[in-house]
Amino acid sequence: MNFADWEASVPSQIREDSLWRMEAYRLGLFLADLAMRDAGQLLEDRRTVAIADQLVRAAGNISSNVGEGYSRGTGKDRARFYEYALGSARETRDWYYKSREVLRPEVIEHRIDLSTQIIRLTLKMVSNERRRNYRFNDPRAQP
Question: Cα dihedral sign for 82, 83, 89, 92?
Answer without folding.
Answer: negative
